[in-house]
């Protein structure tokens, strides 16, 4: 019977099949009533013996290629460079100001310096983040060690894009301690 069909009939059947495929694909991609699902929480019960209400989760299959932030769809911009790139000079100035201010009269004490490293890294990271370098992830490291006639070697190893990834470093020294602060600006598309 298929041999007896002429070309017009076969073309009409092909078009009909394509339209049906498009309809089934679009039906699969449109959100239905079951799009809003509930997370089932098996972790403990509330004081009254009832389970806490589960948080809603949105599941849209048609949004696989999009980044979503608070329900807004974003497509790739295909822009390869940042509008506000990482400036090592500005970051080095921040490192110098923070380190000189906080460590100038400090005497090395292991417990104090351990906490101070965390505080310095947080302060530096907040000030560098305020510069709003677009498309950069920040890594901030601060090391403080006692100055006791020893040598110190510190190394880090990364997979690096030499055109876009940058870093700033500042080292501080007084009579009792050595300190180094590093901020890496890693380009993130």
Shape: rod-shaped
Q: In sequence order, what are the helices and strands, one letter per element?
A: HEEEEHHEEE
Beginning-to-end CA distance, first to last residue: 57 Å
Main sheet: strand order: 5-7-6
State the oligomer. Answer: single chain
What's the main sheet like?
A: 3 strands, antiparallel
The overall pLDDT, averaged over residues, is 78
Textual characterization of the structure:
- This protein has 189 residues and is α+β, with helices and mostly antiparallel strands.
- The protein is built from 3 helices and 7 strands, in the order H-E-E-E-E-H-H-E-E-E.
- The strands form 3 sheets. A 3-stranded antiparallel β-sheet has the order 5-7-6. The chain has a two-stranded antiparallel sheet with strand order 1-2.
- A hairpin with a 3-residue loop joins strand 6 and strand 7 (177-187).
- Helix 2 packs antiparallel against helix 3.
- It is rod-shaped and about 95 Å long.
- It starts with 6 loop residues before the first helix and ends with a strand.
